[in-house]
Amino acid sequence: MIPDKNVKRRKLILFLLKKECIIAIYLILAIIAGYKQYHHHAYNNYLIFKYVYWHTTSLQDLYLNYPEYADSNHYGPVFSILIAPFALLPDGLGTVLWNIANVAVLLLGIYSLPISLKKRSVIAWICAHETLTALFSFQFNIALTGIILLSFSYLVKKKEIHSAFFIALGTLVKLYGIVGLAFFFFTKNKLKFIAAGLAAFALLFALPMLISSPAFIIQSYSDWYNSLAHKNDLNASLTSFQDISLMGMARRITGDVSIPNMPFLLGGLILFGLPYLRTAQFKHIGFRLMLLASTLIFTVIFSSGSESPTYVIAFAGVAIWFTTQKEKKGWIIALFVFAFILTSLSPTDIFPKAVKEFIRLYSLKALPCVIIWFTIVYQMMKEDFESYLITDK
Fold first, then answer.
1. Is residue 66 classed as helix, strand or coil in its secondary structure?
2. Cβ atoms 208, 324 nearer than 8 A
3. Looking at residue 343, what DSSP letter applies?
4. 104, 131 in Cβ contact below 8 A?
5. For the segment 102-134, what is each residue's pLDDT rounded down to a tens digit?
6. Which residues are 322's β-sheet partners?
7. In whole angstroms, how far apart are CA 123 and each of 46, 290, 310, 322, 325?
């Protein structure tokens, strides 16, 4: 009986790691989340996105509060092109298809990674719960994670034009995409990459003009900058649902809302940049993947705009860090479990309401990711990645 149980267990694991199985699971999550939120009239984020298209076509300010959703948009004008196919549909269908499109881009990004199929599937499973959290809010962060992964994978595969396009797209939609430039030193065709990037930025900058006007789009980019600056000031509130970041933890634990971002950002950038000194390691895919993990986590823990659904980006970094470890030592497993419980599960009903509120008020969802990010920096400065075998079958 024991051998039979082992065989059945192995078959189940192999089935769950099949790419087709994971695609099916993600589609089910996208459909359930979209359907549930639509029928409970809890899709305000989707309405914000939808009206970016309609306000662009009617030349209305993209960053004002409107009665249709009693909130404001913070995405760039090019987002009007991305959301257009969904905005033209009835909301019930649009919400579901929007979620499906987001998980499709995420999965494209995960399965583009230059590692074994098994490890890619494990990463997808690890990210599934954070993806579900973001799906309930119709977050573009799901697709943005995929865009960052694609910008990395294409550059590693020497497809500089593709990589540059995704970096430009992510940046002009939500600025976070600019972190794809962190992979610049992994390409030997730097001039080709730069030229492709400039062309992609120019094309995408002008693209929304096709459904509005040049003057309106140029003004909209200026308005976008002002809206982001204003939003950044609001995020520092001690009770905000945002600022789930390293700076947010410092502000909320001390109760001092005046603590500035800049010292944290400067310190973070210095630490982030230190591994670039190890140029001999650039050729190793393990080192490159560690930089990808560092980039994904850095993007979130050093942003005062980070909220709970934003952590789909950071948790992709956690998943890449964990699955590409040379050895799964006890402390590494413990740190990963700590992250999964506190970062991924803390917004769920597994935690009592009072505990969830305590975690939110002190931005503690960020804590495991902060610890893992410092761990990644340490590993990148210390270890030899030539021995990292991450393409095993």
1. strand
2. no
3. I
4. no
5. 999 999 999 999 999 999 999 999 999 999 999
6. none
7. 27, 14, 17, 9, 13
